Write a sequence for this structure.
């Protein structure tokens, strides 16, 4: 018999002009360019803090420019192909690379469609993320970024229309957002191995099995386009097509897939777009 897991009482990001509330795509593109030159080793977070400024100054010294920490024309030219046109200055398609491609990766990730490594390259991963976003936005899924796709990216990401319950009682570790050179599309809840994981809301199981990176994964559809993901489970207690109640056990915490230790990776998606789970939890 499955158990009912316990509960715990424990912003949404807009594209405002050229910047997101959680980071500036322009700064993220600078971080990507500096990383490609071996000068920046921090997280691609779009924050112009000391690590980014110091990396820029070190790069300027290395190439013989005035080390003023200002991204002027000479510094941009020295950064090479990853410091070209701004997002919107040209259409983007498979094979493109540059500053605008890095900005696009960052903006898409915050809209719920990460594309792998932030590298300023419009490769297959980015093309697939673009197509998923285009379908989400009701546009033709052509994998080509022009004015209509850029206009759709000005719309705020969705909010969860349903209230959810914490799947386990434990503190949060890694949060939703940039992590290293990638984007973390959920939250990691630091529960112990074997902790029962409860459904965040009543719904129907649409996936119960292994998935790349996620290890043992359960996905529950709740209606209104909302799905919740429970990853790295040690084992599963549900089957595809099964109805579960709020709090009903779907599995137990493990460390399967790309996990460095026991925890629950928890995601919330709205019509395919990953949102910050903390905005949907009490």
């Amino acid at each position: 018999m499955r158990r009912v897991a316990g509960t715990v009482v424990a912003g949404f990001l807009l594209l405002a002009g050229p910047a997101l509330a959680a980071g500036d795509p322009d700064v993220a593109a600078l971080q990507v360019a500096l990383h490609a030159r071996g000068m920046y080793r921090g997280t691609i977070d779009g924050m112009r803090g000391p690590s980014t400024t110091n990396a820029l100054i070190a790069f300027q010294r290395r190439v013989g420019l005035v080390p003023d920490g200002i991204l002027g024309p000479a510094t941009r030219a020295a950064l090479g192909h990853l410091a070209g046109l701004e997002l919107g200055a040209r259409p983007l398609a498979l094979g493109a690379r540059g500053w605008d491609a890095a900005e696009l990766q960052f903006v898409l990730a915050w809209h719920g469609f990460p594309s792998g490594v932030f590298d300023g390259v419009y490769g297959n991963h980015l093309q697939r993320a673009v197509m998923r976003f285009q379908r989400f936005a009701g546009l033709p899924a052509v994998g080509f970024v022009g004015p209509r796709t850029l206009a759709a990216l000005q719309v705020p990401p969705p909010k969860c229309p349903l209230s959810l319950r914490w799947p386990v009682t434990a503190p949060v570790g890694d949060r939703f957002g940039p992590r290293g050179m990638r984007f973390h599309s959920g939250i990691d809840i630091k529960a112990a191995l074997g902790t029962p994981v409860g459904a965040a809301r009543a719904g129907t199981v649409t996936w119960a099995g292994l998935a790349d990176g996620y290890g043992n994964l359960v996905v529950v559809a709740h209606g209104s386009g909302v799905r919740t993901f429970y990853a790295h489970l040690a084992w599963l207690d549900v089957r595809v097509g099964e109805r579960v109640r709020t709090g009903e056990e779907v599995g137990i915490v493990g460390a399967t897939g790309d996990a460095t230790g026991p925890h629950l990776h928890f995601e919330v998606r709205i019509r395919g777009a990953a949102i910050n789970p903390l905005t949907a939890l009490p």
User: Anything to note?
Assistant: Residues 177-279 form a domain with the Glucose Permease (Domain IIA) fold (CATH 2.70.70.10). The helical segments are 25-36, 50-62, 73-79, 99-110, 124-136, 147-152. The first strand starts at residue 15 and ends at 16.
